[in-house]
Every structure is written in structure tokens, then in C-alpha cells.
Design brief:
Length: 385
């Protein structure tokens, strides 16, 4: 088994409105030091075993079959500081260091993941292929009976073609795929009695679904000795295809956050194979990431309608709206260049990244924002013993 441990720290920090910064209300001095208010450590044990075989039925037909068994066990240990009243004023009554850690019951996930594939080679320079595989993703939360949720099973289908031209000087690969999660965890509609509406987002059921489809195109070329050219393009569209419609569940038709529709890359590298400058190498690579959204996907928000003397039994009891939670992000392109030289056992490489100093951001699920790396230069020197 492979043990892993991750730790999340929650801190208190100065509030700053980045979207509407007001010098008259925001503090201009050095922000006060933050302190940790919660410490959560996730301990995970993983184990997997698999078997796979590729069988040549004929010289032109090959069959792939495989099976993987995965086991995962995890728990979370949390320590929190406690805020209470001291002489009528809010104060820390139990510090993080003195708090009593609380460990959740262990969550166990087990799943079989089959894999199958078919390859047909009508000629030495062409292959047609199709494959199926699945995987599982552990879920958080519990069922309405307070039992751990089963993992979500994700099915992936692929078909494609590989073709070489001019004795391998140019190679192409085109793949079409579909990825389906037919048991996505969503907020349960009712409590365990099957009647009472559920408004707790940690009580879930496997009733949602997402479906993704796309195409990947890869081209590699070696027109002359020492020169390698690579290009790629990918289109991906993954949407919520089914939802329970309950409080906190995803909105049908919404594209999953943090998944750009379009990505592309183009690169070339050349290493002089002979002559006075033999060992000199240089190249460049451009990467494009298209428009996407960051943060969380939109979800349904149920707001309870409170009874009033004029309306003691409101109908409906809840007003359902869509909560806008994602952040639109524009696409961007970065360009890198490299120059190197190798002589006997010594090599030196100089790389200039993000030449145009492109500014863009990655927005994670918890809305933490990280800018992409700015323009930077890196030089390395190696010696082979």
C-alpha cells in the first residue's frame, strides 16, 4: 500500500476587495500577521493490482485486455481553535495548539477497472484503434443514511487513427473520445424519510452525470536529421448532463470549470549533427490555453420562504435560483525558447520562459488565485560521470 498525507491550514487574514479597491477604506499599512485557525490532515492508504495482455490475433489485428483492482482508505484529523466569550468579549478560549484533534471514521473505496482495446493495422504505416477503460473517483459527504458514498465510476471511450508518411518522416495521430460520469455525487433531494426536503449539501446521492467529448490531433515531423517539429490541438467540452436540481447541485448544461475548450501547442528543436558546431541545440515552443472559467461551477440555491401572518403556508416553500460562482478567464499564449551546447560529458542549457511576459491566472476550486509564471531565465550546467 502507498501511504500519503496532505495538510490544509485555514488562516485569518486582512480583507481586501480586489475588484473594487478603495484607498479610503482599505488599510495601507503592512497587513497584520495571519494565524492558523484550523489544521486538517488527510491520511490516505492506497493499493492497486492490475493485469494486462496484448494478443496478436493475426498480423493485422491485435486485442488488448486488462483489469485493475484499486483499494483506498482515508480519514481526516482536524484541530480547531475555539472562540468564546470572555468578560462579554469574543476571545480565543482554546488555541490551535491546545485543541483536541478530532478524527473522522475511515472511508473505504474499492473498485474494479476493466480495460479493452482493438488495433487493426491494414498496412505497416497505418493503425486504426478503439478502446474502453474506466476509473473511479472517491466522493466526500455521506448518504442520507449517514453511510460513506460509493465512488463515482468514469467510463472512457476512444477511437482513432495513426498514420505515418514518407517512411516515418511525418506522423499523425487523430483521436476522438467521450468521457462519462453517470453517477456524479449530488445533494440528496430528500432526507432518509423520503419526504422531508434536504437542505444539507453534505448529504448526497449518486444521481448526477457529466459527459465530455473531444478530439486530439498530434503531428510530429523529422524533415532533416536533428530537426524535430511537433504540433498538437485539443478540443474538449465537458458539461453537466444530469442533476438532481437540489440545493447545492450543479446546473444542467453548465460547462465544467477549469476545462478550456481549446488548447494547442507548436514546437521545434534542432541539434546540429555534424560540423564545427556539432552539439549545439536550440528550439522554441508555444502553448495556447483557451477561454475557460475558474472557481466552482454554478449551482442551484434553495431559499426557504418564511411563513407570515398573511401567508402562513407558503407555496412553494422554497425559491430556487442559480448561484453564479464561476469566474471567466481569457485565453493566453506563452512562448519559450532554449539554447544549449553539449561537448563530451559536459552540457549547458539556457532557457527563456514566457518571452512576452504574458499575464494570466489560474483560479482553483477554493478561489485561490495564482498567476502563471512571468518571464524568467534558467541556466543549467551538467556533467556526466
Amino acid at each position: 500500500a502507498t501511504p500519503t498525507s496532505t495538510t490544509a491550514i485555514t488562516t485569518e487574514a486582512t480583507a481586501i476587495n480586489l475588484f473594487n479597491y478603495d484607498y479610503s477604506t482599505q488599510s495601507l499599512n503592512v497587513p497584520y500577521p495571519t494565524r492558523a485557525t484550523q489544521l486538517a490532515t488527510t491520511n490516505t492508504q492506497r493499493f492497486g493490482a492490475y493485469a494486462q495482455d496484448l494478443i496478436s490475433v493475426t498480423d493485422y489485428v491485435k486485442v488488448l485486455a486488462g483489469l485493475r483492482w484499486s483499494w483506498q482508505e482515508s480519514d481526516v484529523t482536524t484541530s480547531k481553535e475555539v472562540i468564546g466569550k470572555v468578560n462579554g468579549v469574543d476571545a480565543i478560549t482554546t488555541s490551535l495548539d491546545n485543541s483536541t484533534p478530532v478524527t473522522t471514521p475511515k472511508t473505504l473505496n474499492r473498485a474494479y477497472s476493466p480495460k479493452a482495446g482493438l488495433v487493426i493495422q491494414p498496412s505497416k504505416d497505418m493503425s486504426l484503434f478503439a478502446s474502453y477503460s474506466n476509473s473511479f473517483t472517491p466522493n466526500t459527504g455521506t448518504t442520507v443514511d449517514l453511510k460513506p458514498l460509493d465512488p463515482s465510476i468514469i467510463d472512457q471511450y476512444e477511437v482513432g487513427i495513426k498514420k505515418d508518411f514518407w517512411k516515418g518522416l511525418l506522423s499523425t495521430n487523430v483521436t476522438l473520445y467521450q468521457i462519462s460520469n453517470n453517477n456524479l455525487a449530488q445533494t440528496a433531494q430528500f432526507l432518509a424519510d423520503g419526504v422531508t426536503q434536504n437542505a444539507t449539501t453534505t448529504l448526497k446521492e449518486l444521481v448526477g452525470a457529466t459527459k465530455g467529448k473531444g478530439i486530439e490531433i498530434d503531428i510530429t515531423a523529422q524533415p532533416v536529421e536533428g530537426l524535430n517539429i511537433m504540433a498538437g490541438y485539443s478540443f474538449n467540452e465537458t458539461k453537466v448532463s444530469k442533476s438532481s436540481g437540489t440545493n447545492g447541485s450543479l446546473v444542467v448544461g453548465d460547462i465544467l470549470a477549469r476545462t478550456p475548450r481549446n488548447t494547442a501547442n507548436l514546437s521545434f528543436f534542432y541539434k546540429l549533427p555534424s560540423g564545427l558546431l556539432k552539439g549545439l541545440a536550440f528550439g522554441a515552443i508555444a502553448n495556447y490555453v483557451g477561454d475557460r472559467t475558474g472557481g466552482w461551477n454554478d449551482d442551484y440555491l434553495w431559499t426557504e420562504v418564511k411563513p407570515t401572518p398573511a401567508n402562513p403556508n407558503p407555496d412553494p416553500k422554497y425559491i430556487v435560483t442559480i448561484r453564479d460562482r464561476d469566474i471567466p478567464l481569457k485565453g493566453y499564449t506563452t512562448i519559450d525558447a532554449s539554447l544549449g551546447y553539449e561537448w563530451r560529458k559536459i552540457s549547458i542549457l539556457c532557457r527563456l520562459s514566457n518571452i512576452t511576459n504574458e499575464l494570466n491566472y489560474t483560479v482553483h476550486e477554493n478561489y485561490s488565485v495564482n498567476p502563471i509564471a512571468p518571464r524568467q531565465i534558467m541556466t543549467s550546467l551538467r556533467y556526466k560521470f
